[in-house]
Inverse folding.
């Protein structure tokens, strides 16, 4: 049984449509991440599910219970969901313990053991129980917010860009703590974020949203390796796109003849675009020990050093003089003006033109 | 034709929460709140409506004859001269005092900071009483300007001091690095940022002056309000009084319009999340004794004179003054009316403030402006309106406590609103949503989340109203139920009969009752600036 | 003001209304529970509060009827009663001067005064209509600073004060009913034109003060040479500390001059009164021996008019004042206010 079923949700403000027909299923116990650029409507989708906005039209089922659509409307405080807002939204006038206990039935609110249990779940020291929100760091506030959301054992937890307000260093550790807590509780989770690496690492189902529609929903690997279109491809990871001509199982492009993933029935030869991931392109030394005639050749035009990696701008020698940018990790980055060879590993993905 | 598209690094796409306009089912204002707010705003328009209706009813010829006459010209000159001089004086003293306290190394700064705000606790008519006791021949424009400037400069001082505290020193430092001298920095960088605070304070001073009766009547400086009161004594709410009220109301509206125009559209946006560092302080050096002397002079004039006079009369009158039979009932009346008004006003301000913060739009702004309009009216006009309306359409409430409390609520609604708005902003809708998601129904969430968060602001607003009511004179004179005497009206009847000793205990009580609230205001403004 | 638990925003005004409704109509200080003698009356009092309080206290002591006072000025209260009409809560109206009584009488709001009460007051001190009676009297005087004016320089008539030589030298309280009564006598005696001219000269010559006490104080301090007030302010101050009158003396115009006008304080019972019997009782008391003796022996220093009670010995006897004969019922207060408004004084 699906923990969440969303069908045909449209939502807008006045004349401005934001969601243009969303269909989504989340399995029980699963973690889903919706990723998309700012303004694509992902927060609106979350708010529709939570009950803070009402879709027109559209239906939402939580478990097997319909909460909106077809004349049904269950107000947010009766949906039994957990909601973690972007900035935590802790109640400033309550202590951490009181915040966490907020959603619990009256009898359980004073249970110190339950509070301690929840604090431990989110990797916070039980001594935090008596602190006030303004005494916590951003990451700690988010964790308390999560503890508060899961305390009443909701069927579904919604997270609205929970890590985007944190410093980069804090982000990773908080994310790990949150992921662990949710996994331990086995809570069904829906996370929205604009950070694609966060989505890919956190969830077992990723949905890519753009301009109010979900362009693709599937496991992270599928989204990354077999994106349904170029826009999706570009959004979920670095992409090297090259114009090419397909002939049989190979596509002819500036990097030579590149194998592409098996095509579906009906795909024909012709012009189009080849998609490669940067990690598939290997740099070789053209004058080195293992020259391969099929390697493409290029001249390094720009080198931008970032410490952990280097961004290389390479002009290919092939006619057409295409320029590609690559990230190169490792200490042996070539210098500007050097001649490099480029070898493709693994198949690319083909998108026919038109 | 080739390109590599890299998704934007996560760090630069900062928290971009889409600004959701207030539409959709979840965003429409609750009907009950809307109705309450509309009712409140409608009642606030009664005084203005009264003046308009009466003006129309009087007929063009008579109205013209009553308005265009030499006496009105005289009153206009007096009033305009007073407003111009006092506003200028208040701005000068207020800004100077704020600058001395916040931006220089004046010795005993914290002490002066409090002292400069104390005149708030002394009603203007008590200040006047203090001066008249010492210098009985004080009169004319000079006397009026002297008394009212020292009574009202805190209206400019407090907001300017608060802004100075919050100013980002980076702006001034940048100007200095560009080669500006400290004086030029002050003139070209600091003062413009103070513009809103100064204008707001000046408006308050102007409106108070237009409404001032007791202080000016005591030194026989005639303005519209004193003339209206005189007409009232002679004709109750005759045509002449109403026409004068119409002119007075126009002056108030003029001031309000001027304020809006002068504020302009220039934005002095706060960059970043506020100053992390306090601003550098100017070393006074050899100018320090002069500054100290000036500060002492200001405080002496503003607080010293009334306190010394009250003290002198109390000593002269002896302990017998305190056993006067009217004292206790007057005190109780003031306290009761103050308490009633405080509670009612805070309760009534809640729906309007709620709409203004949570459901911003042209409708809620309009409602809010209506409530400000009533408070811009002098108490005498509001009281006249209420008396007339009550006698003609609402007999049962005529001369009742209900009517006077409603009048107070109208007059002092903005004081509660300003406080409440700030408080409601402390309870953003995100918290409401979090609470709802955790299972709190809307009613329970109001009690568990919203109310505790806005309670300090509610209390502050109620306290402000309490203080205002305890020292209110003109509306009380007209509207108090038979037999009800407040500290203010009793003070007034004694000082009108030149019985200054008998008036002294009332003056002292009014000051004592206002003190805690002034202190509270000071603390609030400190806290809002983050220190 | 600590935190109070309140209801939701919509309920808050409802609670407020309930609060107010319970306070509706209540007025502090008014006790209307039946006392030993039963009942209470509401008096709209334009007379000096201290004097009326003495009357009220003595009356309550004698009869057990409680008296609730609404204090105000002559015309303020007269116009208020007029506006209130038949729904007025007032039982008795007391004034300092008679024009205000005329205003209420001509609106038909007074009921006839008991014959017994009328009998206590000589005809000269009550209108022939019998709708109200005089309860006290006061004489117009010119108080002057002995250091600034010699007896030879004193004005012979109040009309002289219009002369340019008096510019800036005298003062009065034009917004008060007292002075307006004096001007109404002038209007009755000298006619509208002369009075309007005099008022216009007054605008140039005189300083306006609020209250006769303020005028007297200013004269005493030397800010004015003289002022037009009523006699009892001076007499009262002289009997106390003299601090506001020690440099001054009174000048009585006499000779039936408008400046010798003796103004009558009036008392009447309202037709709308719901306690007519007690109201009449009060009026009878005030004009009776006990009531009038309060004027003789008390601190108000006004002239008694009823029950043949003599004036306070410190005062110049009524018979010697040389006041002009005036029909009190003809004094027109509202017209005087209009004339003053026209002259730019109000």
């Amino acid at each position: 049984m699906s923990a969440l079923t969303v069908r045909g949700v449209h939502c807008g403000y006045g004349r401005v449509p934001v969601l243009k027909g969303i269909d989504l299923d989340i399995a029980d116990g699963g973690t889903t991440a919706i990723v998309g650029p700012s303004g694509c409507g992902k927060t609106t989708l979350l708010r529709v599910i939570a009950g803070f906005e009402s879709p027109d039209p559209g239906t939402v089922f939580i478990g097997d219970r319909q909460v909106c659509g077809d004349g049904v409307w269950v107000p947010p405080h009766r949906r039994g969901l957990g909601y973690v807002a972007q900035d935590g939204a802790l109640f400033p006038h309550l202590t951490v313990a009181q915040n966490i206990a907020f959603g619990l039935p009256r009898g359980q609110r004073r249970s110190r053991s339950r509070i301690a249990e929840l604090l431990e779940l989110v990797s916070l020291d039980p001594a935090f129980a008596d602190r006030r929100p303004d005494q916590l760091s951003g990451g700690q506030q988010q964790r308390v917010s999560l503890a508060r959301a899961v305390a009443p054992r909701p069927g579904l937890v919604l997270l609205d860009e929970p890590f985007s307000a944190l410093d980069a260093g804090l982000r990773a550790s908080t994310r790990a703590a949150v992921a662990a807590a949710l996994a331990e509780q086995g809570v069904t989770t829906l996370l929205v974020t604009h950070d694609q690496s966060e989505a890919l690492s956190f969830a077992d189902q990723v949905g890519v949203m753009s301009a109010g529609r979900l362009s693709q929903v599937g496991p992270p690997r599928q989204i990354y390796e077999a994106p349904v279109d170029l826009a999706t491809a570009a959004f979920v990871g670095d992409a090297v796109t090259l114009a090419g001509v397909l002939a049989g199982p190979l596509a002819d492009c500036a990097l030579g003849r590149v194998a592409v993933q098996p095509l579906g029935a009906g795909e024909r030869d012709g012009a189009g675009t080849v998609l490669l991931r940067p990690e598939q392109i290997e740099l070789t030394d053209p004058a080195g020990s293992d020259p391969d005639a099929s390697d493409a050749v290029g001249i390094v035009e720009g080198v931008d050093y970032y410490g952990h990696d280097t961004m290389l701008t390479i002009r290919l020698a092939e006619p057409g003089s295409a320029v590609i940018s690559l990230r190169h990790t490792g200490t042996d980055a070539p210098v500007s003006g050097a001649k490099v060879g480029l070898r493709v590993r693994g198949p690319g993905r083909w998108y026919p033109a038109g | 034709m080739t390109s590599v598209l890299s998704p934007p690094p996560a760090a630069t796409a900062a928290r971009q929460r889409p600004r959701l306009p207030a539409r959709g089912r979840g965003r429409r204002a609750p009907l009950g709140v809307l109705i309450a707010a509309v009712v409140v705003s409608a009642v606030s328009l009664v005084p203005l409506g009264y003046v308009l209706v009466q003006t129309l009813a009087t007929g063009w010829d008579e109205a013209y004859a009553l308005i265009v006459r030499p006496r009105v010209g005289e009153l206009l000159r007096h009033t305009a001269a007073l407003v111009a001089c006092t506003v200028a004086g208040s701005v000068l003293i207020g800004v100077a005092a704020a600058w001395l306290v916040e931006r220089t190394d004046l010795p005993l700064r914290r002490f002066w900071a409090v002292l400069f705000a104390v005149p708030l606790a002394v009603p203007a008519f008590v200040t006047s009483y203090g001066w008249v006791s010492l210098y009985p021949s004080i009169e004319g424009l000079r006397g009026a300007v002297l008394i009212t400037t020292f009574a009202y400069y805190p209206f400019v001082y407090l907001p300017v001091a608060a802004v100075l505290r919050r100013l980002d020193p980076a702006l001034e430092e940048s100007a200095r690095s560009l080669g500006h001298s400290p004086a030029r920095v002050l003139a070209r960088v600091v003062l413009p940022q103070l513009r809103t605070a100064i204008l707001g304070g000046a408006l308050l001073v102007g409106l108070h002056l237009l409404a001032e009766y007791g202080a000016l009547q005591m030194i026989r400086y005639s303005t519209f309000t004193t003339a209206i009161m005189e007409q009232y004594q002679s004709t109750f709410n005759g045509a002449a009084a109403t026409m004068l009220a119409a002119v007075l109301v126009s002056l108030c509206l003029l001031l309000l319009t001027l304020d809006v125009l002068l504020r302009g559209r220039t934005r002095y946006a706060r960059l970043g999340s506020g100053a992390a560092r306090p601003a550098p302080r100017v070393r006074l050096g050899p100018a320090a004794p002069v500054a100290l002397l000036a500060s002492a002079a200001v405080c002496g004039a503003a607080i010293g004179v009334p306190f010394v006079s009250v003290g002198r009369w109390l000593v002269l009158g002896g302990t017998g003054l305190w056993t006067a039979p009217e004292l206790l009932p007057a005190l109780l009346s003031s306290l009761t009316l103050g308490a009633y008004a405080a509670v009612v006003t805070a309760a009534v301000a809640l729906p309007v403030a709620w709409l203004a913060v949570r459901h911003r739009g042209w409708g809620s702004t309009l409602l809010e402006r209506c409530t400000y309009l009533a408070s811009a009216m002098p108490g005498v006009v509001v009281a006249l309106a209420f008396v007339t309306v009550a006698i003609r359409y609402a007999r049962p409430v005529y001369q009742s406590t209900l009517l006077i409390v409603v009048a107070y609520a109208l007059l002092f609604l903005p004081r509660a609103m300003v406080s409440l708005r700030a408080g409601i902003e402390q309870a953003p809708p995100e918290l409401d949503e979090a609470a709802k998601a955790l299972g709190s129904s809307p009613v329970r969430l109001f009690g568990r989340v919203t109310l505790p968060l806005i309670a300090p602001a509610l209390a502050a607003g109620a306290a402000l109203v309490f203080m205002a009511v305890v020292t209110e004179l003109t509306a009380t004179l007209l509207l108090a139920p038979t037999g009800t005497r407040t500290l203010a009206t009793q003070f007034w009847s004694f000082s009108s009969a030149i019985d200054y000793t008998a008036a002294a205990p009332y003056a002292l009580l009014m000051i004592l009752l206002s003190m805690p609230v002034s202190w509270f205001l000071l603390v609030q403004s400190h806290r809002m600036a983050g220190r | 003001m600590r935190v109070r638990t309140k209801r939701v925003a919509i309920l808050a005004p409802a609670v407020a209304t309930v609060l107010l409704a319970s306070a509706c109509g209540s007025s502090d200080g008014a006790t209307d529970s039946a006392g030993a003698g039963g009942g209470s009356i509401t008096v709209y009092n334009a007379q000096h509060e201290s004097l009326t309080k003495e009357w009220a206290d003595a009356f309550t002591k004698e009869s057990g009827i409680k008296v609730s006072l609404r204090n105000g000025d002559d015309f303020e209260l007269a116009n208020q009663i007029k506006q209130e009409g038949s729904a007025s809560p007032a039982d008795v109206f007391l004034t300092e001067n008679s024009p205000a009584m005329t205003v209420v009488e001509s609106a038909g709001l007074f009921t006839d005064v008991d014959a017994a009460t009328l009998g206590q007051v000589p005809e000269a001190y009550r209108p022939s209509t019998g709708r109200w009676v005089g309860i006290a009297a006061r004489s117009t005087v010119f108080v002057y600073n002995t250091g600034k004016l010699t007896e030879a320089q004193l004005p012979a008539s109040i009309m002289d004060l219009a002369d340019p030589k008096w510019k800036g030298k005298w003062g009065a309280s034009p917004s008060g009913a007292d002075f307006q009564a004096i001007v109404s006598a002038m209007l009755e005696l000298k006619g509208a034109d002369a009075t309007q001219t005099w008022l216009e000269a007054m605008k140039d010559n005189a300083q306006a003060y609020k209250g006769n006490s303020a005028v007297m104080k200013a004269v005493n301090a030397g800010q004015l040479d003289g002022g037009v007030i009523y006699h009892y302010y001076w007499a009262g101050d002289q009997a106390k500390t003299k601090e506001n009158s020690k440099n001054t003396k009174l000048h009585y115009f006499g000779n039936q001059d408008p400046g010798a006008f003796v103004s009558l304080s009036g008392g009447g019972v309202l037709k709308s009164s719901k306690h007519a019997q007690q109201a009449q009782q009060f009026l009878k008391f005030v004009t009776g021996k006990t009531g009038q003796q309060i004027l003789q022996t008390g601190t108000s220093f006004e002239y008694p008019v009823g029950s043949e009670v003599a004036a306070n010995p410190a005062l110049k006897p009524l018979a010697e004042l040389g006041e002009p004969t005036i029909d009190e019922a003809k004094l027109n207060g509202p017209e005087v206010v209009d004339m003053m408004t026209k002259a730019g004084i109000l």
About this structure: The radius of gyration of chain B is 25 Å. Chain B has a mean pLDDT of 82.
